[in-house]
Design a protein that fits this description.
Elements: H1 2-45, H2 74-77, H3 81-89, H4 113-123
Amino acid sequence: MMNSKMKQLLTALAISTAVVSASVSTVQAAEKGASSVEEGKKLAYSRSKGNCLACHMAGEGAMPGNIGPALIAMKLRYPDKQKLVDKVWGKPETQTVPNSMMPAFGQNGILSDSEINKIVDYIYTL
């Protein structure tokens, strides 16, 4: 009898530990995602880094340029997020606009892969 009760207690403890662990992981992932978006926003608006506002209207950015298209509905325009990453990075096969003024940020070493991913995380929320 005691053995059966002990097994039930240990099973309940194992299940509750797994549930709490999964909840903590989900919260940490959400916090990481939010911080990645915030960092991406800072990089995108930074005149010394992404400088997206020099050419694009984006979010609530002040004094946007109008050389490039407005950064709106990005999930609809780029359902495959990797294609947007490739475009910002500067992969030649993604440059579908002839004579585009947009620099190849990754290819030219302007931004790191991590910075590009954070900017894309932010842009993808627009």
